[in-house]
Amino acid sequence: MRKNLDYYMSLKYPVEIEKIPQEEGGGYHVCIPLLGRYAFVGDGDTIEEALAHLEEVKRDLFSLYLARGIPIPEPDEEEAEYSGKFLLRIPSELHRYLAQQAKRNNTTLNQYCLFLLTRKAYLHTVQEQMEEIRREIRGLHQRLQEISFKVAKPKSTNGNATRVFHLDEYKRSA
Predict the structure, then answer these.
(1) Burial per residue of 72-90, b for 16 or more beta-carbon CB atoms within 10 angstroms, e otherwise
(2) How far apart are CA 169 and CA 91, in angstroms?
(3) Over residues 57-84, mean pLDDT
(4) Domain count, the chain
(5) Comparing C-alpha atoms, which of 21, 44, 19, 18 is closest to residue 32?
(6) Domain at 34, CATH number
(7) Is the pTM of this model over 0.90?
């Protein structure tokens, strides 16, 4: 398939929509980060106007890019839109257990499963962040063990030299 203007215009790029505060004039600002957060932009009083403006900008810039041979990134399948629905086959015993738990929690099976999935995804993210923090702490601890702490006392007039404390001595004196 030849990748022409119509091809690129038909691709579904993720769009960010931002409401412009009233004190800054109001309206909406939209952009396509994958193509250039500051190049592929549209503005309007309504979301529809901003998206329509963005379509004009896309058409103009895609035409320019194609004429000049500038590569145009395509959205990944991971960035595709999702309906929010999927079919999941589970053992009947698990189905029964989940339905019972949903009833016990005064909610629907769908809402209960959504709660469980959201909680697990959140916990997984927190665990990853905690592991990163642990790694950083271990690294800092290791570096601290490699460093000798030097505590220097000012030279006194009676000729005492500066005393240097190493980490082991510092721990004992604390």
Answers:
(1) eeeeeeeeeeeeeeeeeee
(2) 63
(3) 85
(4) 2
(5) 18
(6) 3.30.160
(7) no
